[in-house]
Amino acid sequence: MMNPLVERAQLQLTRRFLLGRTAGCLGAAAFAALSGAASPALAAIDRAKPNRGLPELPHFPPRAKRVIYLFQSGGPSHIDLFDYHPKVRQLHGTELPGSVRMGQRITGMTSGQSSFPVVAPMVQFAKHGEVGTWVSELLPHTAKVVDNLTIVKTMHTEAINHDPAITYINTGTQQLGKPSMGAWLSYGLGCDTQNLPAYVVMISKANRPAMQPLFARLWGSGFLPSSHQGVRFRAGKDPVLYLNNPPGVNQPRRRSMLDSLAALNELQYEQMHDPETETRIRQYEMAYRMQTSVPELMDLSDEPEHTFQLYGEAARKPGAYAANCLLARRLAERGVRFIQLFHRDWDQHFHLPRDIREQCRDTDPASAGLVADLKERGMLDDTLVIWGGEFGRTIYSQGALTPTDHGRDHHGRCFTTWLAGGGMKAGYEHGETDDYSYNILRDGVHINDLNATILHALGLDHERFTFPYRGLDQRLTGVEGARVEPQLLA
Predict the structure, then answer these.
(1) How many helices (H) and strands (E) in the chain?
(2) Which of 107, 128, 134, 285 is disulfide-compatible with 48, CB 3.0–4.6 A?
(3) Contact 135, 143 (CB under 8 A)
(4) Angle 275-298/321-333 helices, nearest 10 degrees?
């Protein structure tokens, strides 16, 4: 008996099937073009209006209009940057008590160690700002803007390895395939411009070989329409891949081609009602408009010298973290909803005193410069800036502890994230950890609580902001009872 799948495949190869399948599409497209009526192409262009999100959103007046997420991939050491306890100096070199560790599951990188010596920061701390916030000497520029920050010292997560942890904080679950926060916001709130995507991603060039991979699914759309996935901008002559016209194709020819293609896609949509067909039309039109908007965005020649003094000279180097921070401000000015920067290799398992100093030198001036720049321009009030990673580091040393060197393993029980602007409480430190910066004493904030609070600042109730998929009302904050942290809000 003939296999029905084989039979169908052979049928689709016949000339009769080809003519029958395509005649209607081509004929209708030609008729519409000749008649001058409301053609499918015009309908496609109309459908490519700015992504305004869902009409019922936001749920209540927002405090923030946009987000810039400075993601420090790999787990910055909260112990050496923000969460300082003077008593830790007295504990340096002593064994971490079992009563503090409490049988915690740890990674395979230190589970075989026979000793877990406590390591105090090998840098100095000082109090800064009106409230006297402890800040490491590694962050002199951040120390200058500390009165604008909301510093959360009691972030926590269940994940202790990079891939599940970074997936968790970006999508609300350790499972793969769920939408990222930026995709959720693109879907729900849309964008205030038709010339740029709602969600833009940039990965900074490191001054050392990049050890940690970053997968595109971290800015993916999951089960949401694919038009909401992040668009990655790169350094160099082609900031967005495949955006420019190929040799021999000019703008009028490109426009004509897109109109014809849109007409065929419209006919396909009328037959199949596949939402991805609409997505394809929108993305073609967006790419066409970006051919003009992206070169203008990337051209920094109109920036005054003061800007480069603010962000640091590295802002002149395409792809550097500082340059991406400056571009993030320019994207925010143009109406992009969610801008996410990834800076890799905050993962000092060994040689932490040397390597974390280099990381801070790369990022500290620009992170603080972005906050100061937004404030100068009157944009900080409605722009939410977030700085943080997927977890923190252990108080005990990974590997040998020497007078000048040590490492730290992954630690999810507590770590530090800071926020600025967007309705957050400025000059505020939230939560308290023990003298070992190991356990939370009060006011813990789960990573999904942070995401719920971010959504709240944007006018969204995280419990009502859902998408039906596989019989469930899916949401960014999962199903385990995330809560908004009102103490973080102004």
Answers:
(1) 15, 17
(2) 285
(3) yes
(4) 110
Q: Helical H runs in 203-341?
A: 251-272, 275-298, 305-311, 321-333
- Residue 48 has phi, psi (to 5 degrees) of -90, 20
Torsion angle of alpha carbons 213, 219, 196, 272, nearest 10°? 130
Note the pLDDT of residue 272.
79
Note whether residue 15 is domain-resident: no
> In total, how many domains does the chain have?
1
- Tokens read off for 314: 């590295």
Residues 476/480/481/484 CA torsion (nearest 10 deg): -40
Buried b (16+ CB within 10 A) or exposed e, 262-287: bbbbbbbbeeeeeeebbbbbbbbbbb
- 166 membership: H or E segment, kind and range: helix 162-171
3-state helix, strand, coil in the chain (%, to 5): 40, 15, 45
pLDDT score, position 49: 59
Q: Is residue 30 part of a domain?
A: no
The predicted structure's pLDDT at residue 67? 98
pLDDT at 51: 78
214 is a domain residue: yes
Q: Are 124 and 89 in contact (CB under 8 A)?
A: no
- Residues of the chain where predicted confidence (pLDDT) is lower than 70: 1-50, 208-211
Q: What is the structure's pLDDT at 353?
A: 97
Sign of the dihedral defined by the CA atoms of residues 292, 315, 324, 460, in that order: negative
Q: Which domain holds residue 382?
A: 66-488
Strand, helix or coil for residue 455? helix
Entry pTM = 0.88
The pLDDT assigned to 15 comes to 54
pLDDT of residue 250: 83
For residue 313, tell me if it sits in a domain: yes
| Residue 367 pLDDT | 98
Cβ neighbours of 142 (radius 10 Å): 26
